[in-house]
Amino acid sequence: MTHPSDSKLHIALFPWLATGHFTPFLHLANQFAIRGHKVSYLLPRKPMLLLQPRNLFPDLITFHLVSVPHVEGLPLGTENLSDVTPSLGNFVRVAFDSMRDQVENLLRELKPSIVFYDLAFWIPECAASIGFKTVCYNVVSAASIAIALVPAREIPKNRALTAEDLMEPPTGYPSSTVVLRKHEALSLLFLYRRSDDGGVSMYDRIGLSFKGANAIAIRTCNELEGPFCNYLSSQFQKPVFVTGPILPEKDEETLIEDKLVGWLGKFKAGTVIYCAFGSELNLEKPQFQELVLGFEKAGFPFLIALKPPTGACSIEEALPEGFSERVKERGVIVKWVQQTQILKHKSIGCFVSHCGFGSMWESLMSNCQIVLVPFLGDQILNTRVLCEVLKVAVEVEKDDNGWFSKESLSNAITSAMDKDGELGCLMRKNHAYWKETLMKPEFMSNYVDNFISQLYQL
Fold first, then answer.
1. Does residue 134 contact residue 123 with C-beta atoms inside 8 Å?
2. Which of residues 420 and 80 earns the better pLDDT score?
3. Which of 63, 294, 400, 416 is the Cys-Cys partner for 409 at CB 3.0 to 4.6 Å?
4. Phi and psi at residue 41, in whole multiples of 5°?
5. Beta carbons within 8 Å of 458's beta carbon, 6+ residues apart
6. How many CB atoms lie within 10 A of CB 359?
């Protein structure tokens, strides 16, 4: 489908340095290209090599290499947030902002009509001199953006923001259930902290990115988050466009390893628990051990895809004593699997997730029961939407310090998997409704077509 004018857009993309941003930006690029629009994607070398096989339209989507300058305090060769521990995140932000001159020069040469960015708050300043429109494209939920951005604007300038402020929904917020608990609010406060090394805080970065854009776009749909999008539009006094889920419509080429396929084939349909927490999370060793013991306690066969915990060179050395012998063939722990393929396997019956926004959409479009263990701000709010609003998932209980136990994890899994239990039945019924809604023919393509029409109006 093309716009009535039959003109084509030239769109440039420049996402934040994280896999969870690189990948959805490429999914969006593929949607632009399938409709004949030209895309210039700016990214570093390692992420470019990772994404090249997923570029479905290399004649229309061109990767342009940009280098991440070395910043003292970062390991040499850092190009992605997953290359470092969370404690070095501010150095990554400094390196990211140091890319401004080369990005601006490249955009001046490319002459795009619209530039999509998320955390490069200085892109609108470049637009003023080069001459393009800007869209701040967000790959996290509207519900979490509102909680992160709005409360600080209601606090008097003569006092600091507190966890209690974040626990109170901001004025006009569309939900009384999608809120933060004390330990979650404390973890979110780091967004508001400024460092002494010149880095711009995440809160300031997000706020400036929103403020400078011609329009805000969010990878969500009105059926799920319409009130939150309207709320953000009223808060920032600018249009908020929704793109729909933007997920690949056909399977990616990477298949499950034969060894893993053979192992999954040993179990009945819908009985294996799959767990993954994204590409960036590193658990502490005690929490990692509590996690695997929770899977052992639940009694189901399980497949866990996680990096070794902090301080451990391998998964094996971090496992509790005697664990491997006790679970034997019932449990497999690996560093990485092709998640979209795994979730489609008939043996998988439950997905234990951190509820990153990409995993959230993938879980809704699967046939699996959903158990959630959120760790960071947007994951926590995504979890509230799924558990409290949609009622399609169960959240693992945590203590006041944000730690979960093997018992709380096991209880969440068994309650979700109980075919006759009230909670498990409610989740299945609601999940089936939302999957049917999201998988309707033309659902995603209609959203993208409408989104592109809105881009022409810019």
1. yes
2. 420
3. 294
4. -110, 115
5. 114, 133, 135, 214, 215
6. 22
**For the segment 165-206, what is each residue's pLDDT rounded down to a tens digit?**
888 888 888 888 887 888 888 877 766 665 555 667 777 888
* Cβ–Cβ under 8 Å, residues 229 and 240: yes
Claim: this prediction has a pTM higher than 0.90: no
What are the Cα distances from residue 125, in Å, to 23, 130, 138, 239, 433?
26, 9, 19, 19, 44
Q: Retrieve residue 8's tokens.
A: 């084509």
Q: In terms of C-beta density within 10 A (0-12 exposed, 13-18 middle, 19 or more buried), how is residue 436 classed?
A: exposed
- The tokens of 128 are what? 């003023």
CB–CB of 114/38 below 8 Å? no
Six token digits for residue 433: 């409704």
Between helix 406-417 and helix 422-438 the angle, nearest 10°, is 70
> What's the CA gap between 453 and 458, in Å, rounded?
9
Residue 389 burial (CB count, 10 A): 15
How crowded is residue 337: how many other Cβ atoms within 10 Å of its Cβ? 19
Burial of 120 (0-12, 13-18, 19+ CB in 10 A): buried
- Residue pLDDT, tens place only, 329-355: 899 998 888 888 899 999 999 999 999
Q: How far apart are CA 86 and CA 413, in angstroms?
A: 28
